[in-house]
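Please describe the entry underneath.
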Amino acid sequence: MWCSNNGRIQSTFTNHAQGFQCQGIPYPASGAVKPTSLYFVVTFSQCNSFTRWVGRTNGSQMAASWTLFYVDGNGRPQKKLKGADTFTRVW
């Protein structure tokens, strides 16, 4: 993950969630980080969808809520799903 001095981040995200498409492919992720929170978005172009995560950091873990948007051919959201994940920092 790359983080600038102003808190902007650039990285990749690989989906391994059961029951969802676009697994095993790294996609660009971008967002922002603050001392106790993180926000990032991943566009899964091959699956016509994008997901945003918003979370609070607590040491090496981050609890995050997510919203997955399926889009039409013009990029307009058509359907959304919501859920939550817990991420663990790996060094």
Observations:
- The domain at 2-88 is CATH 2.40.128.30 (Lipocalin).
- The longest strand covers residues 77-88.
- The two ends are 11 Å apart (CA to CA).
